[in-house]
Write a sequence for this structure.
């Protein structure tokens, strides 16, 4: 059951893949869903508002935050990239978002972090949210910055944040790695709903995964949120095995949790 406890929720990155998947689902969580992205993505429909804003533009971010009760922050660069786009969208953009939240009195944020914050842990390990970040690239590094930034804004200003280290959120797992990292769209919505409605969120790091039998992540530190995944990659396992070759154990992408992100080319 989805409990509506917020009048207006802001969804950044609304034109992206996950933003599109959540657009209709999130209307159950609020009376008005304000959608934002860097470029125009069409008009609002019933119970929606659209605010086009570049995250690197502090004034635009401050304006789009007016009247907002909670934020689901998916906006920014979502893949490995040269540093400057990541700097503008994921680092300066995250700072602008939290400063705007502070100035506008917004007290709860669901921040889309990433499994690539811990991509250089081995696939043979099971880690908790208490273990140090080991980012596998500039993208993962920017998400580690966002997690630290959100902790600062909780400790200093009381803005509660759930840092959701999203695994692989697609309609179904695409390869063997995703049998461990898969997060269904419905479970993503369940997780966001839990973060929006738990009585005390504080600053919490949560691994964004479905109820997969194979996992590298221990989510017990986030039990207070009340997230109970209902989907699992297990139903896709036979099909994934049939269409993919056995893993090459000498390949870094098989050894480390970050997959192919750990062996991308030099930073440019």
């Amino acid at each position: 059951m989805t409990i509506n406890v917020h009048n207006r929720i802001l969804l950044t990155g609304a034109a992206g893949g996950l933003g599109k998947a959540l657009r209709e689902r999130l209307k159950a969580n609020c009376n008005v869903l304000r959608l934002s992205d860097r470029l125009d993505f069409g008009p609002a429909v019933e119970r929606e508002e659209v605010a086009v804003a570049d995250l690197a533009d502090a004034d635009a971010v401050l304006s789009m935050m007016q009247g907002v009760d909670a934020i689901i922050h998916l906006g920014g660069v979502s893949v490995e990239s040269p540093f400057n786009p990541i700097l503008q969208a994921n680092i300066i953009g995250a700072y602008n978002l939290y400063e705007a939240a502070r100035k506008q009195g917004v007290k709860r944020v669901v921040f889309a972090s990433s499994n690539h914050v811990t991509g250089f842990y081995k696939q043979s390990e099971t880690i908790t949210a208490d273990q140090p970040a080991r980012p596998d690239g500039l993208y993962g590094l920017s998400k580690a910055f966002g997690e630290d930034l959100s902790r600062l804004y909780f400790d200093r200003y009381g803005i509660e944040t759930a840092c959701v280290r999203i695994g692989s959120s697609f309609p179904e797992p695409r390869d063997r790695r995703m049998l461990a990292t898969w997060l269904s769209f419905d479970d993503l919505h369940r997780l966001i709903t839990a973060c929006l409605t738990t009585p005390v969120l504080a600053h919490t790091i949560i691994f964004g995964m479905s109820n997969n039998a194979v996992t590298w992540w221990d989510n017990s530190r986030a039990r207070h949120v009340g997230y109970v995944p209902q989907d699992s990659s297990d139903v896709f396992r036979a099909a994934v095995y049939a269409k993919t070759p056995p893993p090459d154990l000498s390949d870094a992408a098989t050894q480390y949790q970050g997959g192919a992100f750990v062996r991308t080319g030099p930073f440019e």
The longest helix spans residues 83-104.
